[in-house]
Design brief:
Elements lengths: L1 E15 L2 H8 L6 E15 L3 E5 L6 H8 L7 E6 L3 E4 L12 H11 L4 H15 L14 H14 L4 E5 L7 H16 L3 E5 L3 H7 L2 E6 L2 E7 H20 L10 E10 L7 E3 L4 E9 L7 E9 L4 E6 H4 L4 E4 L2 E8 L7 E11 L2 E18 L21 H4 L8
Parallel strand pairs: 3-7, 3-8, 5-6, 6-7, 11-18
Antiparallel strand pairs: 1-2, 1-4, 8-9, 10-12, 12-16, 13-14, 13-17, 15-16, 17-18
Helix pairs in contact: 3-4, 4-5
Amino acid sequence: MKAVSAKGLGKGYRRYSRPLDRALEWAGRGTRHDFFWAIQDVNFDLERGETLGLVGDNGAGKTTLLAMLAGASSPNAGSLSVEGRVGSILELGAGLHGEFSGRENIFLAGQAQGLRRDEIEDEVDGIVEFSELGEFIDQPVRTYSSGMFLRLAFSVATAVQPDVLVIDEALAVGDQRFQAKCTERIDAFVRRGGTLIFCSHNLYQVKKLCRRALWLDHGQVQQAGPAAEVCDAYVDRSRGRILSQKLGVAEGTSPMVEVTRVEARDGAGRPLEQIETGDAATLHVWLRRGDGADVEPGVAVGVVRSDGLVCHCGSTDLDGATPRPTGVGEYYISLHFQELPLFGGSYHFNVAAIDNRRPLIMLDVKEGEAPFLVTNPRTDWGVSRLPHVWGHDGFDAAAMDGGGGDRA
């Protein structure tokens, strides 16, 4: 059964050069506006339980589309059908009243979504607990930080058990731990059969949370399909624009250096799949330089945890390394980690081709390469294991008691 259906969807606005033109037009002094389409001819269907990511530049129309999906705005072209209760977080603090407390805002938001007061009361304790606002829940929302806004808005939107959840950049604010907590709740929502529409500039989050994606460009669908393919295409276009501005390379041309192959091996030379904290690993990278490209091929590598935390990032230019030519325009280099002191979890590599002489610009990027698991057989915890030794070296009893010697 379709949860969301958009056919020829469009949303436009009148634009006036100056405020006076609006009044003159109203007074019958002729047309004094032009018409701007923020969204035009957008088509997609979502079945119940499906997930859709929205990507695109600022001003591409993403927020306008989300506002229509959430019922906060109406289309003036095409049709839009959304079945069931909708929970939404459109922008930070939207729908929260600053003079009311967090608790009062919970009741206001619940009533706005059609819940009875007794239904809201059943959810309040869970919302407060998830938001971790504690005693601040009874303080005016205008005193909240941006992170506290997020906690309250997200907790309310996801606690009322919506059928469709619309999220606009909500996970861009807040600490890493709370972001992971939000991601877990979204995963649980989708597993229960909820429909998710998620917009973010963090393409890792889009790939992780969504199976499909729409790339909007100037209000129109540039590409639609599997989330990984759409996100990679969007990144390629964005990178092409950067290259055209920085290096004078025409948009749409092939990368001057591209990553053609990535492999990872464990300390025994087997494909890297699962290791223990502190085991060795080696990453192998193959590159191809474009014909006539005036670049010195290099590589940048990031070791990334599954929640997006970058545990390590390094590059050939920083370490004075150079890939070895293996043929005409072909290059190879390996990165050996004598120890990977990472604690338990899922990890992957992000690999970028760079110009060793101008390393700040990534010419080609491959994300989510060679995923692997790390298990930690010990009980210490954190991000990584730091070499350390317990002992008593340097202890000076005299210094500790102020140099006064023995006490009576």
